[in-house]
Design goal:
alpha+beta; Phosphorylase Kinase, domain 1; binds adenosine-5'-diphosphate
Length: about 290
């Protein structure tokens, strides 16, 4: 967390130039795990700015594209992007309030509706960044090939390069990866996914309705988003019931969920190390 870091005058000047109006810092906000955040006033309009003094190449441009792709789906509310720079992203400010009584149902139904929006194939029109980890998105016709070559293998290679995984875990991971064809389907619907769906990336708007933030969008098997929600918790039984009512899950989800949790766990191993390797090992052993 970087909540105490104020937006520097230089950053504010770049944000103002991007917005085309003189912006004023209102308040530093608690940032996420990766970026710093602030509320600014842009000629009377409240704007949320996230920034990073040492950004990964194109990270904010990728996030802006993802937010636009989610907005284009016209399902759940997503903040409108106001300006982007290499080291900042400015968007509509969500004045968060208490969740409305039907928040969970709206989120479940809205996510199912988002997943009904389909890509022609698996991937996205540009590569992404999840946290600071590159997310290759080149289109693929086979979901198994996409999941293996664009997700598990590059993440395993990155974790290995950083020395974040033991030889034993890598070996088990490779064994599971070699069996992917029998664990996940080759041709599920290529659903539009949020891509980083944990509870911290779902906000309640001023009317108490769900708002999606901080995505890592691509088109893939919808169960990936659901598996991620179950990894760290925070989503209620009412959310899952509403999702399943809107679009029931195919049999075997519980086992595939383990397969799909490999990816967020690898990302967490890369970003935060240590304890997540334990969790990854436990997940892999359930699949071995
Ligand atoms: P990071 O990329 O560092 O993870 P996030 O995009 O998740 O940062 O933002 C950090 C926090 O800021 C979120 O958990 C949320 O509470 C808040 N936030 C995100 N977007 C907005 C927004 N448009 N308006 C108001 N608050 C926001």
């Amino acid at each position: 967390m970087h909540g105490e870091d104020p937006l520097s005058p230089e950053h504010l000047a770049r944000v103002s130039a991007g917005l085309g109006v003189e912006a004023r810092l209102v308040q530093t906000l608690p940032g996420g795990d990766i970026n710093r955040a602030a509320l600014i006033d842009a000629a009377g309009e409240p704007v949320f700015v996230k920034w990073n003094a040492d950004p990964v190449d194109r990270m904010f441009a990728c996030e802006a594209e993802g937010l636009s792709a989610l907005r284009d789906a016209h399902t759940l509310r997503v903040p409108k992007v106001r300006a982007i720079g290499p080291d900042f992203l400015a968007m509509e400010y969500i004045a968060s309030a208490t969740a409305a009584p039907d928040f969970d149902e709206k989120l479940g139904r809205g996510l199912a509706a988002l997943h009904r929006v389909r890509g022609l194939r698996f991937g996205f029109h540009q590569d992404g960044v999840l946290g600071v980890v590159p997310q290759p998105n080149a289109w693929a016709d086979s979901w198994v090939a996409f999941y293996r070559h664009r997700r598990v293998e590059p993440l395993a290679a990155e974790a290995e390069r950083r020395g974040s995984l033991s030889g034993a875990t890598l070996k088990t991971l490779r064994q599971v990866t070699s069996r992917l064809g029998s664990l996940i389907p080759a041709g599920p619907a290529p659903s539009r996914l949020h891509g980083d769906l944990w509870s911290g990336n779902v906000m309640a708007s001023e009317t108490g309705d769900p708002v999606l933030v901080d995505p890592a969008v691509f088109h893939g098997h919808r169960e990936m988003d659901l598996a991620m929600t179950e990894l760290f918790g925070g989503f209620s039984p009412r959310f899952y019931a509403a999702y399943r009512e809107a679009w029931p899950l195919e049999p075997g989800y519980e086992r595939r969920r383990e397969v799909y949790q490999i990816v967020p766990l690898l990302i967490h191993v890369i970003l935060f190390g240590g304890p997540y390797e334990h969790q990854l090992r436990a997940c892999l052993s359930r699949l071995s």
